[in-house]
Backbone:
């Protein structure tokens, strides 16, 4: 525990933050910490150009160089191994010079990198970089670069706002966002594309607030006809700009607007048996019990010969995979041997519908209007205009 507390203090000190007070000052919203690797036993590191490696605990340099060939890094009982060399540190900060590039597991990254040994001897790798650089590596993964410019700009502003919200609510943790779709997909410099980077630059610093307060600007691929209330993501997100119920007739061109998935009775029994829900015997029925106001499945029941399991639309999707049951917006049709799910949309449905945003932009609607269409009661604000005072969160801290 002592070692761990020391590690945290070291990281905060290096990040220029104070760890002394019970409540740290609000972190600088123009930077972000992205967990690019979590829980792996080994990562491959490569550096082109001059760099310094420091101990995360003391800040002392432990290695300097002009180039590092692709080298495995692993956690050891008494430090970290870099290739065959044992470094007696539980965390490393790698600082490249301006022209140098760090590559982790094949992805080139901007900014600096922390490699931290965790208690279970797995690795946590955190990329620290400027918010705007982070967004360049996000937007190209979250939206096709051939989409209309105004749609890309709207998504860039939503992604920026979401990132700042995460940064301000995760300040007590070691990182603000992870690099997966569970926060926002991030591919680093490797993933950057010209059109999406231009949209980030064109909207630099702009975020969305509601009555001057920050909120999490959730967005999703395709709503399938109507957006969902943020309440579906948890009681914290029952907020005016996320109230949902926006009738969206703009995402019909999405390949995910309508979908169909056949599930056999055996598929259901097997998936339950493998999950924490456990066995139900032979599956007899799959029933939707309640729906949200936007028509999405709130509660469903799987009736077995031994017992019945009730689960939320989210849990049902998690059971089979979020890309297999693309949204909770579906009806169940019993067929021979199982059930057919007739569905609409991809994603949770909260906030902005990206395919809808693309169509609105094609029809000539500008980014600010696209944003206020999907997030009512909001206004655009420049991050730099918020400097010098704490940014308030809608609904308080989560
Ligand atoms: Zn839509």
Residues:
């Amino acid at each position: 525990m002592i070692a761990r507390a020391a590690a945290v203090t070291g990281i905060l000190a290096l990040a220029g933050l104070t760890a002394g007070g019970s409540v740290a000052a609000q972190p600088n919203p123009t930077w972000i910490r992205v967990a690019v690797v979590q829980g792996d036993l080994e990562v491959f590191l490569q550096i082109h150009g001059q760099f310094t490696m420091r101990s995360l605990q003391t800040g002392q340099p432990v290695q300097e160089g002009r180039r590092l060939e692709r080298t495995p890094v692993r956690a050891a009982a008494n430090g970290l191994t870099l290739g065959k060399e044992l470094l007696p540190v539980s965390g490393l900060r790698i600082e490249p010079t301006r022209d140098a590039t760090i590559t982790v597991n094949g992805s080139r990254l901007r900014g600096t990198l922390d490699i931290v040994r965790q208690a279970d001897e797995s690795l946590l790798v955190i990329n620290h970089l400027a918010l705007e650089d982070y967004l360049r590596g996000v937007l190209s993964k979250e939206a096709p670069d051939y989409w209309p410019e105004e749609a890309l700009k709207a998504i860039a502003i939503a992604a920026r706002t979401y990132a700042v919200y995460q940064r301000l609510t995760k300040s007590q943790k070691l990182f603000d966002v992870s690099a997966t779709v569970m926060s926002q997909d991030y591919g680093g410099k490797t993933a950057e594309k010209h059109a999406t980077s231009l949209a980030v630059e064109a909207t630099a610093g702009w975020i969305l607030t509601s009555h001057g307060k920050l909120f999490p600007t959730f967005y999703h691929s395709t709503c399938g006809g109507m957006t969902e209330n943020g309440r579906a993501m948890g009681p914290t997100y029952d907020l005016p700009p996320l109230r949902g119920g926006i009738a969206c007739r703009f995402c019909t061109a999405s390949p995910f607007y309508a979908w169909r998935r056949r599930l056999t009775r055996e598929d259901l029994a097997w998936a339950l048996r493998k999950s924490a829900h456990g066995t139900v015997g032979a599956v007899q029925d799959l029933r939707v019990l309640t729906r949200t106001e936007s028509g999405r499945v709130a509660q469903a029941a799987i009736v077995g010969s031994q017992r019945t399991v009730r689960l939320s639309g989210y849990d049902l999707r998690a059971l089979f995979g979020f890309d297999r049951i693309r949204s909770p917006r579906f009806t169940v049709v019993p067929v021979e041997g199982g059930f057919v799910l007739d569905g609409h949309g991809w994603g949770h449905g909260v906030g902005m519908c990206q395919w809808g945003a693309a169509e609105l932009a094609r029809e000539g609607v500008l980014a600010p209007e696209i944003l206020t269409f999907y997030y009512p009661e909001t206004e655009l604000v420049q991050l730099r205009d918020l400097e010098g005072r704490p940014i308030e969160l809608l609904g308080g801290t989560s």
